[in-house]
Amino acid sequence: MPTPRICQISDELFGGFQVSVDIDYYYDTDEIATYVKNILIGSLSKMHLVSLSHTAENKHFHIHNKTIYNLRQAKQNEIIYICCHC
Ligand SMILES: [Zn+2]
Asked: pTM of this prediction?
């Protein structure tokens, strides 16, 4: 059964960007953060926002204090926050 979850970027520049991710497909939280990063870069590139997409490429996207197991056990409507400002 798919487990779609909303992942939202938390950052002064890209904060609010959301992607629905089926977390069952991912091995760890780094893979989820990288997936969301790639969707963001793809979206910016599609709109020809070259400078913003380069800024996104240089940021380190990560999920704080949670393992993939924590995320799988959490409520389905709980937003997963992706940090890229530290
Ligand atoms: Zn952080």
From this structure: 0.94
Each of the 86 residues of the chain gets a pLDDT tens digit; together they read: 778 999 999 999 999 999 999 999 999 999 999 999 999 999 999 999 999 999 999 999 999 999 999 999 999 999 999 999 88
**Residue 60: closest CA among 28, 27, 82, 78:** 82
Distance 36 CA to ligand 1 centre (A): 15
Q: Where are the domains of the chain?
A: 4-83
CA of 1 to the centre of ligand 1 (A): 31
Whether the CB-CB separation of 9 and 15 falls below 8 Å is answered with yes
Phi-psi label, residue 73: left if phi above 0, alpha if psi -120 to 50, beta otherwise:
alpha
* Closest among 37, 45, 38 to 61, alpha carbons compared: 37
